[in-house]
Amino acid sequence: MEPTPLLDGLRFAECPRWHDDRLWFCDMHARRIMTVDEHGHAETVVQFARGVTPAGLGFLPDGSLLVVNLERPVILRRAVDGAVTEYADLTSLAVGPLNDLAVDRHGRAYVGSSGTDGFDFEVRPPKGSGSVILVEADRSARIVAGEVDAPNGPVLTCDDTRYIVSLLFAGQLLGFDKRPDGSLHNRRIWADLKPGGADGITVDRENAIWTCEPMTGQIRRVREGGEITDMITVEGRMPIVPCLGGQDGRTLFILNLHGGPDALMNRTCTATIDTMRVVVPAW
């Protein structure tokens, strides 16, 4: 199965979320948040100035959008009317840049603290320096999982009872169960993907995870324990992150990088979005 092109002309597309019949994502190097529908109609909904590089996205129950700022350890909020304000300052808790986030049905945001000064694959974060920070609906914050190095692409299962995150440099998915108060427990290796790994991830109704492995071009569906049920390999681009969505939840959006790691680091890369149809829906 070969993915179908949907959108091009991007610089570095990341952090997708399906919401309100559209895919929302960051075009990070262009400092903007965009949307695209299943027909390829795209729109810029927020254009940031210098000082803000948008990263992780998540929606609160009222429809407002939370946005991680990669340049400072703060989360911004875009209200439904488009106004952007600071939502939470996590300076006292974060080590290194904040990265992706996921929001549960109660409006609690789980955000990864990378534990490193950057995302250079040649530089590993000091072991134990990363974490998962929980921002409550009242904006208070605390660390709910320590020693989570370079957490990336977090997801919450459909029943809102499990939290799964990719360990960017370890080639593993890390899983937790979620208590009613939002705290995490029962930490475990959800799947060991070595010698490959996973960048971004998305979860379906059966709690299987779709992963992207940029260096091999592999897009895989993985069950807890590591069983791979589906896999395709794309050429000529690096799949970075998938996201399930669409009207029926069976469209897998795939955000791709063109130009390779060097182009990413010197900001000369380009990006595209493809789609493919899958059997098991998101919800």
From TrEMBL:
The keyword DNA repair does not apply. Keywords: Hydrolase. Residues 12-255 form the SMP-30/Gluconolactonase/LRE-like region domain. It holds the Pfam family SGL. GO terms for molecular function: hydrolase activity. The keyword Hydrolase applies. Belongs to the SMP-30/CGR1 family. This is SMP-30/Gluconolaconase/LRE-like region-containing protein. The lineage of its organism: Bacteria, Bacillati, Actinomycetota, Actinomycetes, Pseudonocardiales.
